[in-house]
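User: Hey, my collaborator sent me this sequence without any context and asked if I could get a structure. I don't really work with proteins. Can you help?
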Amino acid sequence: MSLTLSYQQRRAALEAYFDATAMDAWAKLTSDAPVSRIRATVRAGRDEMRGNLLSWLPEDLRGCRLLDAGCGTGALAVEAARRGADVVAIDIAPNLIAIAKERMPRDLGAGRIDFRAGDMLDPGLGQFDYVVSMDSLIHYQMEDVLRVLEGLAARTRTSIAFTFAPRTPALAALHWAGQFFPRSDRSPAIVPFAPIKLMESIEAEQVLSGWRSARTQRVSRGFYISQALEITRA
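Assistant: No problem. I've predicted the 3D structure and written it out in structure-token form, which is a compact way to encode the shape of the chain:
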């Protein structure tokens, strides 16, 4: 697996954005604090998408290791742990991890969470039964997304569920409208893909041989448009 310079540069920009510029905004967005109408649509969309991704996992995750790749403030990790999973929840932004640790419930039942700041592709994280990556790859070029999936697939036994930005007229319109927001309020640009093109590329990648596209689900709530894709071992 060889990641491009564009991936490294974008990853550094995302770390700076989520760990400093947007930390307070994301802490508020991922809480139940009042937000603007625009951000309320994003919150609702993210809640719906998280529910979809969780629905693709077994209800009983006892004995399973799960990687929450790009965990943010930890909401998905908590729900997976409550099903009994041993969760490694990792994010590039140390300040978001600090918030996740503060919010972690004391009682997770049979599950546990190991929150870490770092790289989702670190081989030292070990092997996993399931990987979930919600809205963590939407800022990268398709070539880099495929390389990330390659790295995760090498350490995953069952399935990987991730989200991407689908190329749609509605999303293009939102991008255009977003150019009028103050720059300090904007997240780094997302990179939309045609869903069929992405699925065909996954199937064609020899490095992902033995894997196939499975379920997919799109969520569109105002300023939140995202599509989930599950790939599984064939």
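In plain terms: The helical segments are 5-21, 23-29, 37-55, 75-82, 94-103, 142-153, 169-178, 195-204. You can pass these tokens on to your collaborator as they are.
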